[in-house]
Structures are given as structure tokens and as C-alpha cells.
Write a structure and sequence with these properties.
Blueprint: H1 6-22, H2 28-38, H3 45-57, H4 62-83, E1 93-94, E2 97-98, H5 100-103, H6 106-125, H7 132-146, H8 151-160, H9 168-194, H10 198-225, H11 228-231, H12 237-240, H13 246-250, H14 252-277, H15 285-288
């Protein structure tokens, strides 16, 4: 039975990222904080989701998505640097290490995030593997996922939601914008590179929606149930900021039930997609394993 080897795929991604960094002609003063956060021990779920979706169709297509995967990790890393800043979540630990503004200083951390964000679009634009039409689509979708109608909008709503009484629908919107959009982009990017049919895209998108919400519910739960050794971050950070979270809104047990509900939706979407395309998209269930509550947070 065919399996998805995420450790091998991750090794390929890390090698490609290292090669990209090696050939950067950038001042060491900005390169050091960029690399510090880029190589800070993330699970790489977003780029791996993109690459795995390509591999399910044809392993040779991985090289066509590698630069976009690196760009995606740039965007995700920038968002974490800025999230940790004193004006945002004011965290001093990320993945068990000092956050960028602690390791360097606040101004350097802001600029490192700015550089990662800006460079991401150039990485895709300069990719010789892709057609011009694909590059425009990939960049356009990345702008939507990460900018003022996507992740940034979610981050602002998250901040505004502190000390507020939100409905479950409002909380879901925050989770979708702040976290789900980039997961969806991983799949949208793969669909663009694959020139996927509309019916298949919709099912892939359905999986991405469910997985993104489940991932954020998992994060909310881990903030309550985890510890610094498991998550790499201080526990109860959301509660300290009076953030709207699933456990705060509906309790731990109901949150677990909601997590399982979204996981079920994700699995159903993959099954239907596999049946429609006759490709083994059910292999993407491997990513759902990260949502076990004994696993570490992002």
C-alpha cells in the first residue's frame, strides 16, 4: 500500500531552503535574523501540504512547487515574528527558543519579518519552472491569503476580540482568516500547478477549510492542556491576553468534540476527492495525525 513519507519530503524541502539561503546576496545583518526564524524548528506543515499534494499526482512535480513552498514558509515565518512582538502577543518563546525580538531587538525583528514577507513574492516571480500565468495566479492567491482580506485581517480581528464576548461564528471567522487561509493556499497553489479541474479543487478546498479550523482548535486546546516542553511556548498565553478561544468559549470537552467534527469533515472530503480523481488523496490524512492532542503546537 502506498504511503506518504513526510520525513523524506521534509528533508527535500530543508535542502532546497538551505540552497536558497546559501545563494542569497544579502547583508549579514538582516540575513541572520531571517535565518534564525526560518530555521527555528517549525514543522513545515504548510509547504509540506503543498508538496505532498503534488507528489500524490506525480513525484516529478515536486520541483515545480518547491519555490512556492519556500515562499509560503517565508510568509508563515514573518507572521510568527510579528505575532510575537510586544505590540501583538508579546511572547518571549517560540518553539522553545527566544523569539526574534528577544534574540535580537524589536526593530530588527520587525525588519526581518518585513524582508521575509516581501521576498516571498519575488521567490515565486523568479521561478523558471512555472509558466507566467501560473506565477501570476500563485502570487495573486498568496496576496489574498496573507494580506488585508486574509491572515492580516484575522490577526486584527484576533486582537480586537481580546476582552470581548464573541460568538462561535465570529471565532470561526478569526480562525479561518488567521490560520485557515494559509493552509488553503497550500492546496490552492498545488491545484494551480496541477491545473486541477473545478470539482476537484472544491473538494480540496473543503479539506483545507476543515483542516485549518481543526488546526486552530488544536492550538487553542494545546494552550490549555500543553506545557512549554510540549508546545515550545508558555502555556495559558491566550488566557493571559483574554483572547477568544474555543476552550474559553465552549469549554475543553466541547472543543475536543468540535476538533473531531472538523477532522471527520476533512477525511470525508479527501475520500470524495480520491474517488473523483482516482488519485490517492486519502494519503493527506497523514497531516491529520498532527492534530492529536499529545502532539506539539506550532
Amino acid at each position: 500500500m502506498r504511503q506518504l513519507d513526510l520525513s523524506l519530503l521534509r528533508a527535500e524541502f530543508e535542502a532546497a531552503l538551505d540552497d536558497y539561503i546559501l545563494h542569497l546576496d544579502v547583508s549579514i545583518d538582516i540575513l541572520k535574523p531571517m535565518i534564525y526564524s526560518l530555521k527555528g524548528g517549525g514543522k513545515r506543515l504548510r509547504p509540506l501540504l503543498l508538496l505532498a499534494t503534488l507528489e500524490i499526482n506525480n513525484r516529478q512535480l515536486i520541483e515545480y512547487g518547491m519555490r512556492t513552498a519556500i515562499a509560503l514558509e517565508h510568509i508563515h515565518t514573518y507572521s510568527l515574528i510579528h505575532d510575537d512582538l510586544p505590540a501583538m502577543d508579546n511572547d518571549d518563546l517560540r518553539r522553545g527558543n527566544p523569539t526574534s525580538h528577544i534574540q535580537f531587538n524589536e526593530a530588527t525583528a520587525i525588519l526581518a519579518g518585513d524582508a521575509l514577507l516581501t521576498d516571498a513574492f519575488g521567490i515565486i516571480a523568479q521561478d523558471d519552472h512555472l509558466k507566467a500565468k501560473q506565477k501570476v495566479a500563485l502570487i495573486s492567491k498568496l496576496v489574498q491569503a496573507s494580506g488585508s482580506v486574509g491572515m492580516v485581517a484575522g490577526q486584527l480581528k484576533d486582537i480586537e476580540g481580546q476582552n470581548s464576548s464573541l460568538s462561535l461564528a465570529e471565532l470561526n471567522e478569526i480562525h479561518y482568516l488567521k490560520t485557515g487561509c494559509l493552509f488553503n493556499y497550500s492546496l490552492e497553489a498545488a491545484a494551480i500547478i496541477l491545473n486541477m479541474e473545478d470539482k476537484a479543487r472544491k473538494l480540496l478546498d473543503r479539506f483545507g477549510n476543515a483542516f485549518g479550523i481543526a488546526y486552530q482548535i488544536h492550538n487553542d486546546l494545546m494552550d490549555v492542556l500543553g506545557n512549554v516542553q510540549v508546545t515550545g511556548k508558555h502555556g495559558q498565553a491566550d488566557a493571559a491576553l483574554n483572547k477568544a478561544t474555543y476552550p474559553a468559549l465552549i469549554g475543553v470537552e466541547e472543543s475536543k468534540a468540535s476538533l473531531n467534527k472538523e477532522i471527520k469533515k476533512a477525511k470525508i472530503a479527501l475520500k470524495r476527492l480520491s474517488n473523483l480523481t482516482e488519485q490517492p488523496y486519502y494519503l493527506l490524512e497523514t497531516f491529520i495525525d498532527y492534530l492529536n492532542l499529545d502532539y506539539h503546537s506550532h
